[in-house]
Design a protein that fits this description.
The structure holds 3 protein chains of 3 kinds. By secondary structure, chain B is an all-alpha fold. Chain B has helices at 20-50, 54-62, 64-95, 100-109, 111-114, 117-127, 134-143, 154-182, 186-194, 199-227, 231-237, 248-257, 261-286. Chain B folds into 2 domains: 20-50; 64-286, MetI-like fold, CATH 1.10.3720.10. The radius of gyration of chain B is 27 Å and the shape is globular. Chain C has 2 domains: 6-55, no CATH class; 68-280, MetI-like fold, CATH 1.10.3720. Helices cover 74% and strands 0% of the residues of chain C. In chain C, helix 4 packs across helix 6 (145-169) and helix 9 runs antiparallel to helix 12. Chain C is globular. The chains are: A alpha+beta, B mainly alpha, C mainly alpha.
């Protein structure tokens, strides 16, 4: 069992509180991604788990045991750094064997583990090279190999793909995911890229300004964001958000925004008539029609990307993004009509940003 | 969907324990701290203590040699440093040119800095010997006249000390300024060429603005080090003739030999108001 | 082959106009030394550019210690060497430990230690000489070679710590964190990761302190007085006070004394130049 738990974890740098009492659990074998904008505290949280950053308050548990006082090397974890942190003066083999050498492990055990890791990561031919002779992707794999050799309880990744170009990033994402499926080791992965989070995670922890905004599976966060921040952070292009007012009259519920009436999910229970709300609808949940039904909008820019078309339209002075499949005949300055399914809409309280169900 | 429920855990704040990194860090600075306290703090404190009597300073200021020394030191600083740095600036522009013979020359040029002072200063001292030194011998051969007694004239003697100082330290500063020149991107010169700038204009509008700070910092540092140049004066003139070419660096030793340790320390203390501000400036520049 | 235009000719001429004087200026004192060393006693002062009868006789006299002033030549050379090497090694040890603690282990108060060191570096050594002399007297170390060794270590260390720290700061800190995760103790980090990566700087620093000690005159002169324990530098200085000194032997000894630093400097030129110019004035 290699579970990880955070209990009221807090971190201060001097007087500045950067993490305010976070608690959540990670199950054995889970791939959990900590995601959020720069400065949200995700790397700090990871480093506290790693033992690279002292803990100001609360506890970190690995496998049910409090590890606050343990040094990194005693926590049975391995970390892959953003800049790989390979030892420049050692060969790939020596890099991967280093941790075992420090523990004075048996040579045969070391060889076995190193060769095994090299095989898994396709590093066999590179074992005697030096890091400066390797490409970015190869170095990344050596860094992972170094972690695998440790056979730890938990893998930690600190934005490992940030230094790679876009194409390589996509390939490495798949490799890391495949590795996890093969080794089934508990993994905590930090990134600022929500696409990485969505594609790789079993569960995502969205962080913001030192607190956890929401925890859930990728689709949970996509379909039912708990607050405005998560709604706008997850998903690309970002969700359209309009400030408006909830209208209840008779049996119907709508949101009035920018001079128009927008549909909401049926059975929306929360929210009072006249309450200020934020109305959210994803660009891919909007479509356009030339005919009269729907909300009129003026086309500003049309951007065909091949399989899809992205349109920038304007309603009542606010710009919205619409993503449709296929092509469109719409031209800039034309008026089109926006059509959406109320069930896909999201309503958030205007003041707190919390989701209204 | 929502956060996992916070368990009511009694957790004390993590005590600030001495982790092994910090422990070894402290152990590893001990050697230097020992050196510092035993061989810097104690000597300096003891020296200041020896210089505590106001009477020493009265005696010091009464000594005509002291005033002569101060004048010499100021002259030395002002003339030697500015001449040296100006030449270093010019030479940095020379050595940056790409020629095989300039490269060879730059290798040779480091020689004065690399070799010890004693042999070379003594060598020049003998060249200046009025009877059999090479210079006067040549003067006699060419003109039939006796050359001057170089080191017996205080002005000439001090000048030669300055020349020796420049000879020794020029390579170092030339290298520094050369490094500064190399840091200037070539495109700036190309743009200036396209704009029709002459060599002088290129220097004035491209080279100098980039080098200005380095030049200034080097000058300040050089002032501190020149103040401490004992060899160039002592080995060439011994402070003579008649103690007329002493500088602050050699004066302390003179008093020491006369068994006037208090004056020796006093002369150093008197130099501090000049030295300490310069040191302070250098430290501020370096920690930027 | 560049075209021989008037412009290129004048440019080359201008460069030569600087180059030739620089060459002559640089070489004269050293060449004069060399000239004396290979000339027989009487003709050394003749003013010729090359002796009529060049001889190695002076060298043989020096090497065989065949003169009153040269009685302890080899012993003094040995002293110079021993002191220089010890200073180099000790300074390397002290400054490497301190730089590692300050730069990698981020010890508390590291910044202060660095500033203390810098301060010591900037104070001219000549000003510290007399206090050091008195202090060594109080410690009972006068005329003991350790006085000179420790004094030179004190003078050389600050600069070495600065240079090592600058070089060390360029190593990414994640390397240390990776080592920490791999299970390295602070000492293992020092031995297995830090030192191997710092070799060029260590060479520069060791060479610098070695040469500093070898070339030193003032401190050697103050702290050592016994003919048997002084360095060659002091011995050369003591020639000066006598009237009947054998000048040509003096110059020969000086030349011999000057050769090792020149040779070492040229051998390690690359390390020295990058190491020392980077440290002296932060660009």
């Amino acid at each position: 069992m290699a579970s990880v738990s955070f209990r009221q974890i807090a971190k201060n740098f001097g007087k500045v509180k950067v993490i305010h009492g976070i608690s959540f659990d990670i199950q054995d074998g889970e791939f959990v991604v900590l995601v959020g904008p720069s400065g949200c505290g995700k790397s700090t949280l990871l480093r506290m788990l790693a033992g690279l950053e002292p803990i100001s308050g609360g506890d970190v548990l690995i496998d049910g045991k409090v590890v606050n006082e343990l040094e990194s090397k005693d926590r049975d974890i391995a970390m892959v750094f953003q800049s790989y942190a390979l030892y420049p003066h050692m060969t790939v083999r020596e890099n991967m064997a280093f941790s075992l050498k420090l523990r004075k492990a048996d040579q045969s055990l070391t060889d076995e583990r190193v060769n095994n890791a090299a095989r898994i990561l396709n590093l066999d031919v590179l074992l005697d090279r030096y890091p400066r002779e390797l490409s970015g992707g190869q170095r990344q794999r050596v860094a992972m190999g170094r972690a695998i050799v440790r056979d730890p309880k938990v893998f930690l990744f600190d934005e490992p793909l940030s230094n790679l170009d876009a194409k390589l990033r996509v390939a490495m994402r798949a490799e890391i995911k495949a590795l996890h499926q093969r080794l089934k080791t508990t993994t905590v992965y930090v990134t600022h890229d929500q696409i990485e989070a969505m594609t790789m995670a079993d569960r995502i922890v969205v962080m913001h300004d030192g607190i956890v905004e929401q925890i859930g599976t990728p689709l949970e966060l996509y379909d039912r964001p708990g607050n405005l921040f998560v709604a706008q952070f997850i998903g690309s292009p970002a969700m359209n958000v309009l400030p408006g007012v909830l209208r209840r009259s008779g049996g119907t519920v709508q949101v009035e925004a920018k001079g128009q009436y927008w549909p909401v999910p049926t059975g929306l229970a929360g929210g009072a008539d006249g309450q200020a709300v934020s109305y959210g609808i994803r660009p891919s949940d909007l479509t356009i029609s030339g005919s009269g039904n729907g909300i009129p909008a003026k086309v500003i820019v049309v951007e065909p990307t091949g399989a899809e078309t992205e349109l920038l339209v304007e309603v009542g002075g606010q710009q919205l993004v619409v993503v449709i499949h296929g092509r469109t005949q719409a031209q800039p300055d034309e008026i089109v009509h926006l059509i959406m399914d109320g069930a896909k809409a999201h309503v958030f309280d205007g003041a707190s940003g919390q989701r209204i169900e | 969907m929502s956060q996992a429920a916070a368990l009511p855990v009694q957790s004390a704040p993590t005590p600030r324990k001495l982790d092994s990194w910090e422990f070894w860090g402290r152990i590893l600075v001990i050697p230097y701290l020992l050196v510092f306290f035993i061989f810097v703090v104690y000597p300096v404190s003891y020296g200041l203590w020896l210089a505590r009597h106001p009477a020493s300073y009265v005696k010091l200021f009464d000594d005509p040699i002291f005033f002569r020394t101060v004048v010499n030191t100021v002259v030395f600083l002002v003339v030697a440093i500015n001449v040296k740095m100006a030449i270093a600036l010019v030479l940095s522009g020379f050595f940056i040119q790409v020629r095989w013979w300039i490269k060879a020359l730059s290798v040779l040029f480091i020689l004065p800095w690399a070799v010890p002072s004693i042999p070379t200063i003594l060598s020049v001292r003998f060249m200046l010997n009025p009877e059999w030194g090479v210079i006067n011998t040549l003067i006699f051969k060419l003109t039939g006249l006796d050359g001057p007694n170089w080191l017996n004239d205080p002005t000439l003697a001090l000048s030669f000390s300055m020349l020796m100082h420049i000879w020794k330290s020029l390579p170092f500063w030339t290298l520094i300024l050369l490094a500064g020149r190399l840091a200037i991107p070539g495109e700036q010169y190309e743009a200036a060429s396209v704009d029709g700038a002459s060599s002088w204009q290129k220097f004035r509008y491209v080279t100098w603005p980039s080098m200005r700070t380095l030049y200034l910092t080097s000058t300040i540092l050089s002032m501190i080090w020149t103040l401490g140049d004992f060899n160039s004066v002592y080995l060439l003139t011994g402070g003579g003739p008649a103690d007329l070419t002493h500088v602050l660096a050699t004066l302390g030793i003179r008093y020491l030999r006369l068994d006037q340790v208090d004056l020796s320390m006093a002369s150093i203390v008197v130099a501090l108001p000049l030295v300490l501000p310069l040191v302070y400036i250098m430290m501020k520049r370096l920690s930027k | 082959m560049t075209r021989l235009t008037l412009k290129t000719v004048t440019t080359e001429a201008k460069l030569l106009l600087i180059g030739i004087p620089v060459f002559i200026w640089t070489v004269i004192p050293v060449y004069h030394l060399f000239l004396f060393a290979i000339s027989p006693r009487d003709s050394a002062t003749s003013g010729r550019l090359w002796p009529k009868e060049p001889t190695l006789q002076n060298f043989s006299i020096v090497f065989q210690q065949k003169h009153f002033y040269l009685d302890h030549f080899w012993l003094q050379m040995w002293n110079s060497l021993l002191i220089a090497v010890t200073v180099g090694a000790l300074t390397l040890f002290v400054s490497t430990c301190a730089a590692f603690a300050i730069s990698r282990l981020r010890v508390r108060g590291g910044r202060t230690v660095m500033n203390l060191a810098l301060f010591t570096y900037f104070i001219p050594a000549a000003f510290l000489a007399v206090p050091m002399y008195k202090a060594m007297g109080n410690y009972g170390l006068l005329n003991n070679q350790w006085a000179l060794i420790l004094a030179m270590v004190t003078i050389a260390s600050p600069y070495c710590i600065w240079v090592l720290k600058q070089a060390s700061d360029k190593l990414p800190y994640e390397l240390d964190e990776a080592a920490k995760m791999d299970g390295a103790t602070a000492l293992q980090l020092f031995r297995l990761v830090y030192l191997p990566l710092m070799v060029p700087s260590l060479v520069a620093v060791g060479t610098y302190s070695l040469l500093l000690a070898w070339n030193e005159y003032l401190y050697a002169f103050l702290l050592l007085s016994n003919d048997r324990s002084v360095t060659v530098a002091v011995a050369l200085g003591s020639f000066l006070s006598a009237d009947d000194s054998p000048w040509e032997l003096l110059m020969t000894t000086g030349l011999i004394y000057a050769l090792p630093p020149a040779a070492i400097y040229y051998a390690f030129k690359r390390y020295m130049v990058t190491g020392l110019t980077a440290g002296a004035v932060k660009s």
